Each structure stands twice: as C-alpha cells, then as structure tokens.
Task: inverse folding
C-alpha cells in the first residue's frame, strides 16, 4: 500500500450565500492555507484578520463561525499507481473540524459532522489517472446548531453564561471551548488538523491495534499475557499473515479473513517485564510492539502496570483513590485544557514544555477535561514517558445532550474509535463519562421542571452508549460516570458532599468562603478546585496597549472571561492583604493570593491521607493570554502558583496549618520508602529574631503516609488579645468580629525537616493572622553573582515573603514565591532559553519583588 500525504498549501475560499457575513464576502479568492492547519490561523497569517488575542480584536472575528468555507488541493495519480488504484484507494482524514462535505473531481464522496471521528472514504470508483481535484467544504457550526435547535421536539439546555459564546454547542461534536468559556476566547475556527492522505493499493488495512494485559498466575506474578487485537479490513475472503515484534522477538500468525471487518487476536507471553510507575514512584518502562501486515506496519508502546480505582464503603462514606501495581498513590496535579485556541499552534514543542513543567512541579496526574478535545498522540506519548497518570473525561461538558437515535449512533462510533486509539497507553488510568453533566441536571429550569425526561436522556447517552462501549472495549480500566460523582448509580451533590467519590469544591471561589474553609472538608478525591489570578506584566503587555494597562480598563476586563472574576480577586485582596500600589504589584499580589489559596487546600488535604487521596487544581494551562485559574500562563511563564505547587506537591513535605485554635504540623511522605530526619518548628518575629522553637530529633514518616508530629495551642503563642473594630460595624458585627491577636501580628512560624541521609531541607512558612494585620519589615534583598554561571545568590537583612526574582532576559528562575530569612541565603539558577548567562549579567538584568514592597513604604 502506498501512502500519498496531502499535507501542503491548499487554497481557502468562502462559500458565498445569502447569509454569508460581509467580512467573509470581502475576502479575496484562493487564500493560502497550510494543511494540517486551521482557518483562523491562515487568515491571520495572510493579514485578513487582526490578532484576536490582542486588545478586543476577538469581537472582530466572531463572524468566522457563521461562514461556510472551502479548502481545495490537487494531487496526481501516476499511471503505475492507477493500476493499484483499480484495486483500492482510500481518502483518509483523521481529524476534520467539523461539518464537512468532501468532493473528489466535483462529486460528493463523503460527509461528516463529528471532529472526534476519522473520515475514511473508498474512492476507488471515483479517482482517476492524472490530476485529481479535492475539495473540503466546512459548513458554519453556528448556523447548523441554530437550525438544529429550532427542530428539537423539546429544549436541550446548555451552559449559557460566557460572553459572546457559541450557542447550542451541545448539539454538535466539536470542541466545546472553541465557542468560549469562563477562561477562554471565542474563536470559532475549523480546518484539517492531522495529515490527510490517499491510501493507494493493498488488499486490506489495519484499522486499529489494541492491547490488553493480564498478570498470569504463578509464584511471584512475574509472567504476563499481552493480548494484541487487530481490527483488520479485508477486500476479499483470503488468508493474511501478521508478524508481531516485541522486546526483540518476532512471532508470526496466519489468519483466515473474510471480506469486511475482522478481529484478529494474538497472545504474547512476557516474562518478568519491568513495570511502568507514575512519576515519583519508579521508572516508566515502555516496550515497543510492532504489528506488520503485507501492506503496512503499526507500532505502539506498551507499559506493564495494574491500576485499581479503590471506591469502597468506609466509616467516612466511600473512598476514592488510585492503586498502581499494588501501591496506593496520592494523585497530585491539575486540570488540562487545549493548549492553544489556534489548533495550528498546538505543536509538539508546546505539549512537551507543558508536560515537563507539570512533572517538574511534582505532579503525577492530569485530568483531561471534557470541554476540550481528545488529545493528539503526542500528549499521551509524553505522559507515558514521564509517568503522568491521565484522568480522561469524554468530551461532554456542562450541558445536557440529545438522546435521539442518530446522535447516539454517532457518539457510539466516536467512543469506539477513541478507546481503540488510546487504550494501549499506560498513562490513562480512568475513563470518565463527562464533566459536570450529572450536576447540570439541576442547573436549568427545563430539567428541574421535567427532571424525568432529562434523566432518561442522560442515562441513554452516558450509561447506554458511553459507559457501555467503554466497558465492552476496555473492561480492565475503571469507568467513572461523571466528574464530580460518587460513582455508578449515585446522584449525590459532590460539589458539597466530601464523604464519597470525586469532588469539585468551588465554595471558596464561587461562594465567597475564606481560604480557611478548605479546612472544613477532607475530600476523598478533589478533581476540581481553584482560585484565579492575573497574568504577569509581560503577558499583559502582549495584549494591552499602554493606555489600557489598568485592571478596570475595557481591554483588561475583556481578558477576564469570568463575570465576577476581577471583583473576587480584588475583594479577596482586601480580606487578606493591604492593597497594592500600581499595576505590577496588583498583578503580583493576585498571584501571591492564588498560590496561598491552593497551598492552603493541598497541604491540609495531603495531611488527611488516607481519607483524602487526590488533589487536582483547576487549571494547569491557558489557551490564550487571560486572567484565569491557571498555574502556567499562555506563553509558558510560571505563575507563583506553579512554583508553590513544586513545593506543596513535593514527595516529602511538611503541612503547617492552624485550625480550631491549634497550630499543627504533619509530615507528608508519598515515596515508596520511609523518611526520617530532624525537624524544627520556629516562632520568629518579623525582624528575624527567634521567639521560641521546638525540636524533634528523629522525626519518622512511613512510606505513603501522613503523620502529625506537632500541635500547639495558638493562645500560648501570644501575650494578649484584642477584637478588631472596623468603621461602620454594628454591635452585632462586633460580637461576630474576627479576633486579632496582638501577639500574633508580629510573628510567624517556620517548619523545617532536615532528612537523613542528607537531602535538601523541607522549609515552609505560615502566617498566624492575615498579612494585612501584620507589620512586615521592609526587607532589603541583595543580589550577588553566583559561583557558577547562570546562578544568583540572594541575601536579606530582614524576613521577606513571597520573593519573586524577575529577569528581563528570556527564561526563568528555578524558584520563586519563597520566604527569604536573614542568615539563610538562597542560590537560584536561571534557566535560560539560550546560552547560560554569567552571574554578573543576571544581577544587572534582575529585579526582586516581595510582599512588603507591594503596598509601598508609607503603608
């Protein structure tokens, strides 16, 4: 079989009709478009639209989703190939977005309306020797779904709270967040996202290769059976020989096949394979499996591991956690969204950078969110390599969905394709039906008033199709019906019930509760929680002209897609901090409080192990420059949250918190080995002097455990108390006012754990009251050239908190957001995007910010 790759520059044209937007009618003919690629990127490349990420230009591109487009290319079938073509030719489109008609030499040869399914068309009777013309018409998704909504027998509601969003997105199988989200731009692009091809000749083709592992009975469980299944399509009844190559050995098997689809299975026995482990637990051994027919060769990488999702009734409610190779793993990570609003910019380099950053922050799991896309192969390949477990939502989110025969059949084919495509990846540890669709049954007036109708529809789709197909094709992986949920058949409120299943805890952000409310719950597994921040000044400069660099300017508000987002960020600042002076300090302080919020939650929940066994914050990444919940900005800049995550997700750490009038410290150990060492709790004043200290000479924490080792009444850390009386308080308010302890305003706590054998000490800091009530010292930090090239030494005369070094050269420092104490200098390494910078250059190009600096010398 010959594969003719059709990747090249195609011609993009508008299909004009009476409803075509004026902007589209004014475009020239035959706009060059690179395929694979997307329409919006092509128009931007050729100067026909302004950058939608800049200013409010998004509003000038909303017509894209209302336009019909046509992509055209030509290819030649040579004479010698034409004789093969008489045998068979297939047009192969792995990913096309979304409503398409495909024409070959002017005749329609196929249609599609689901970008999550490949389009493969037998064109044997329509292809010709010599030049062939191929047209792909991409219809307006907005016009299609608007018409579909009009024809529904009853409404099928969806989330409708984002500015300028695509309405009725739940009626079409396209990336939902293309139409906007409360962190995402509306960029209704379309295109061909994977290389299209003409497959010429051959007597059959391998449609998919999947694997299933089974540990065989034996004295030490070291022998495995690897069942390899090939879905093979043959043009005739015949015999086909398949060769299997695995771990340096080759095996062959002759199969009798019938015309059409065939399931061909072969079992390979593997002795004592090296196991695949999540990051931080061991190595990620991967074996290459090759399956070869007379016409083609398919390769997969396989990792041997067992995964169990432990969901058992207990004294709290019902547990939820992951057990890999018999070892219970605390899941640490974040939620993943599409890496760019322009599909053309979703490159291998961006995937690798983001996933490497996740592992560097000690994450071992990412939740692939259901409002995005089934990811490119590169995502799963890198997760396999790096030991990143994947909680995999199916692509349904925040909506109710149709349950008619055609829609269900389309989804059935979609799930079959995606599970077969992906199930060999060891990184995927769970299939989840959707994001928040179970909860959405209670969101809309229609579903509250006629609940039975919509529950039946939900069940037909989620259990009757998605769950059924997953169980059929991948019975060894856990099927989880929805996120959040308490498991199959349980419709509990997992936004507020922390006793079972996975939880989405949004009471701090959406309901306005304080950060200490994270101490009120111990989720069995928290798969969503978060707090927003603004991006850095570098990112703001990339989208806002100078006269718009103000938090309440039209452009800054435009780059905040959560309706209450800026209000929540600023009101929370007023609750915890003194108000910052100037835009750069406002941006910085928003990142300080975001990091503080998530640290508060994660460290406490890790201390509650084994009741709590997972914390995945919302969200890892951004798909455009925006204020959001992310820990990494659109351009790859680490927010302070990501630096903090590197600490609070560390395999060995100390959780330091105050609850119910008690200061507590717990040792956290996620490693497979016990940890021991010398621990200190120090009470320090803001001038750096030590007021009191406690020492544990031999602190021990077993493998995979959390162990409290210190508790002390806060009342014993102070001398006197006073109530806070704010202007305008009534007597009733005064009775309920927070107690401000004068003796706690001038002091803070540091916990240290010096492990044996020698390792980098664990050091964490805790304020004993809100920083706005503390009289922080105006520390002066000195920058000194490091002994090694690319390093910088920081020294301070007084305690400095949330220290953020910033270099105006490309790259980043290896740490930020830390506490710097007198007599305890820090050496930082600058991770340059180019050549290593001498320390003297780093000193010249670096400035340092810390918390006290954010509100000015007079405050």
Result:
């Amino acid at each position: 079989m010959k594969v003719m790759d059709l990747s090249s520059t195609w011609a993009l044209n508008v299909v004009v009709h009476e409803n075509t937007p004026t902007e589209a009618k004014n475009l020239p003919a035959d706009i060059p478009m690179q395929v694979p690629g997307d329409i919006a990127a092509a128009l931007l490349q050729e100067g026909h639209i302004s950058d939608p990420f800049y200013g409010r230009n998004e509003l000038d591109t909303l017509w894209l989703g209302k336009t019909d487009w046509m992509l055209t290319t030509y290819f030649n079938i040579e004479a010698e190939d034409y004789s093969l073509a008489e045998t068979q030719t297939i047009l192969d489109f792995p990913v096309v977005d979304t409503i398409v008609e495909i024409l070959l030499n002017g005749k329609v040869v196929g249609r599609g309306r689901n970008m999550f399914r490949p389009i493969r068309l037998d064109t044997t009777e329509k292809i010709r020797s010599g030049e062939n013309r191929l047209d792909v018409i991409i219809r307006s998704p907005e016009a299609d779904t608007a018409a579909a909504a009009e024809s529904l027998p009853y409404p099928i509601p969806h989330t409708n709270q984002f500015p300028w969003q695509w309405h009725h997105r739940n009626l079409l199988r396209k990336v939902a967040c293309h139409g906007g989200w409360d962190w995402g731009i509306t960029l209704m692009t379309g295109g061909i996202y994977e290389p299209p091809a003409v497959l010429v000749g051959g007597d059959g083709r391998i449609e998919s290769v999947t694997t299933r592992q089974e540990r065989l009975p034996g004295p030490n469980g070291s022998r495995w059976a690897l069942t390899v299944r090939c879905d093979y399509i043959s043009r005739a009844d015949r015999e086909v020989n398949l060769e299997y190559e695995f771990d340096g050995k080759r095996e062959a098997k002759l199969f009798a096949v019938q015309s059409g689809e065939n399931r061909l299975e072969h079992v390979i026995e593997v002795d004592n394979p090296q196991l695949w482990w999540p990051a931080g637990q061991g190595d990620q051994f991967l074996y290459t499996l090759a399956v070869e027919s007379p016409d083609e060769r398919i390769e997969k990488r396989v990792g041997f591991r067992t995964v169990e999702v432990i969901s058992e009734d207990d004294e709290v409610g019902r547990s939820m956690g992951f057990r890999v190779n018999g070892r219970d793993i605390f899941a640490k990570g974040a939620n993943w969204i599409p890496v760019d609003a322009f599909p053309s910019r979703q490159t291998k380099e961006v995937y690798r950078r983001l996933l490497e950053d996740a592992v560097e922050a000690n994450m071992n799991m990412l939740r692939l969110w259901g409002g995005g896309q089934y990811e490119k192969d590169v995502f799963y390949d890198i997760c396999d390599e790096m030991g990143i477990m994947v909680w995999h939502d199916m692509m349904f989110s925040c909506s109710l969905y149709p349950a008619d025969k055609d829609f269900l059949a389309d989804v059935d084919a979609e799930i079959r394709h995606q599970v077969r495509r992906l199930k060999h990846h060891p990184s995927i540890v769970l299939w989840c039906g959707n994001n928040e669709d179970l909860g959405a049954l209670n969101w809309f007036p229609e579903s509250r008033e006629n609940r039975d109708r919509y529950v039946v529809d939900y069940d037909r789709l989620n259990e009757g199709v998605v769950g059924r197909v997953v169980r059929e094709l991948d019975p060894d992986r856990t099927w989880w019906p929805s996120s959040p949920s308490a498991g199959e058949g349980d419709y509990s409120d997992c936004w507020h019930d922390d006793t079972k299943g996975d939880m989405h805890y949004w009471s701090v952000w959406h309901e306005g509760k304080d950060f200490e409310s994270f101490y009120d719950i111990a989720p069995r597994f928290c798969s969503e929680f978060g707090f927003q921040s603004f991006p850095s000044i570098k990112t703001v400069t990339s989208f806002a002209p100078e006269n718009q660099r103000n938090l309440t300017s039209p452009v800054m508000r435009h780059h905040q897609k959560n309706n209450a987002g800026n209000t929540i960020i600023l009101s929370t600042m007023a609750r915890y901090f003194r108000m910052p002076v100037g835009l750069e300090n406002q941006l910085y302080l928003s990142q300080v409080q975001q990091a503080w919020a998530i640290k508060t939650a994660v460290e406490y929940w890790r201390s509650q192990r084994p009741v709590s066994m997972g914390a995945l914050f919302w969200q890892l990444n951004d798909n455009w420059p925006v204020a959001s919940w992310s820990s990494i900005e659109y351009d790859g800049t680490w927010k302070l949250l990501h630096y903090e995550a590197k600490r609070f997700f560390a395999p060995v750490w100390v959780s330091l918190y105050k609850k119910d009038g008690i200061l507590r410290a717990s040792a956290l150990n996620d490693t497979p080995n016990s940890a021991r060492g010398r621990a200190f709790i120090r009470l320090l004043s803001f001038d750096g002097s030590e007021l009191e200290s406690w020492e544990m000479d031999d602190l021990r924490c077993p493998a995979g455990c959390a162990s409290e080792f210190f508790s002390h009444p806060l009342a014993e850390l102070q001398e006197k108390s006073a109530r806070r009386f704010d202007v305008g308080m009534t007597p009733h308010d005064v009775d309920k006012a927070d107690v401000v302890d004068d003796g706690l305003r001038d002091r803070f706590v540091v916990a240290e754990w010096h492990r044996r054998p020698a390792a980098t000490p664990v050091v964490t800091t805790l304020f004993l009251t809100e920083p706005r009530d503390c009289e922080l010292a105006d520390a002066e930090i000195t920058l000194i050239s490091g002994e090694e090239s690319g390093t910088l030494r920081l020294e301070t005369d007084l305690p400095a908190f949330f220290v953020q070094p910033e270099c105006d050269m490309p790259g980043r420092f290896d740490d930020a957001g830390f506490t710097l104490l007198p007599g305890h200098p820090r050496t930082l390494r600058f991770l340059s995007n180019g050549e290593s910078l001498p320390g003297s250059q780093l000193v010249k190009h670096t400035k340092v910010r810390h918390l006290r600096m954010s509100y000015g010398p007079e405050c």
Remarks:
- The two ends are 75 Å apart (CA to CA).
- The chain has a mean pLDDT of 94.
- The first helix runs from residue 22 to 25.
